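ok trying again, last paste got cut off:
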Amino acid sequence: MTISTREHPAPMLLVLVFRWCAFAWMAIVAAIGGQVREQAAAVAVSALVVTLGWTAWLTLAAVRRSAVVLAIDLLIAVGLVTSGGFFHPVEHVLTNHPSVTGAYPMAAVAAWAVVRRVRGGVIAGVVVATALPVAYLLNQAPVTELSFSQTMVLTASGLSYVVVGAAVGTASAQFNRLAQALARSSSEAARLAEREELAARIHDDVLQHLALLQRRGMDLAARGDVRPGELRALMAEVRVQEKALRDMVVPGATVAPQGSASLTAALEQLPGMYGDLAVQVLASGPVVLPDNVVDEVVAAVKEALTNVVKHAHATQAWVSVLEEDSSLAVFVRDNGIGFTFSEEHARAAGRLGLLLSVRARIERIGGTVTINGRPGRGAEIELRLPG
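nice, full thing came through this time. structure:
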């Protein structure tokens, strides 16, 4: 399970909520507070329109806070602070009356703090704070003749932006650390649950079957007279459990790339197609090969099984797929009467299935065929392809 390293959206969503609350405050104060000079009403209206448009765009665009967006946000915040000094009544900044633009610049500082952490929040706070003396000058307040309390108010107002930047940056960083820790804990819990489920499945299925196969093998060993068919059946069951275990460890079907297919999946369609002959496919993986190779191998195996039905008097056949370092081998075995293979006799008798439909197909794709008749012990045909 992959743990996301992206920033959690909650801090920026909270900043967005604060923006809308701050804008609502701006609109209320501008409408009923009587804190705008008539001569500068157009400037106040322009400030409200720009702020509304910017807030709406941030809401609808849902963009990540790039450097350009942060810069524009900070520029608007500085513009609001300075324009407030222009359209408020003269020396309004020295009174206790509410400011139209006082709250919204905090949102820009908070956004910088969320994206750039404490350092970014402090920098943005300092930039907005430096706009306050300019606003005082535009408001015609005597900056050089302020009283001690007025100087303290100006200083506290500037520091409030810096403190907000530092506090939001710290809180945002801590929030993201906690969110990532929670994600890691959830991922670890999911892995542990998956491991426990896998262990239970292995215990309840594979291990119990293997214990049964072990007892069966011990019984055969104690009896001493073990027939080849009994041993092959036992090994076939072992391979079935091997495949079951592999499927548990690597769950899900393998998706073959375009132009290729799973040889195992194609061969697993064969059981049930040959009447009373029980066909068992033994493979430990999907074995993905080009489409044309899969088609030729499957056709060759089908012809081999058809020959088993016609001539071997067999009741059981096994199709085994074995991947080796430099080659791939497909074995078709049966428990029939076997035969002594001779290419000359096969041609003379007109039994060309093994030669034309099996050997010729495999040789066309660069492989080789070995036929072992094993009279009295069933037959084995080996199809070997280069790696």
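cool. The longest strand covers residues 316-323. Residues 16 and 29 are 20 Å apart (CA to CA).
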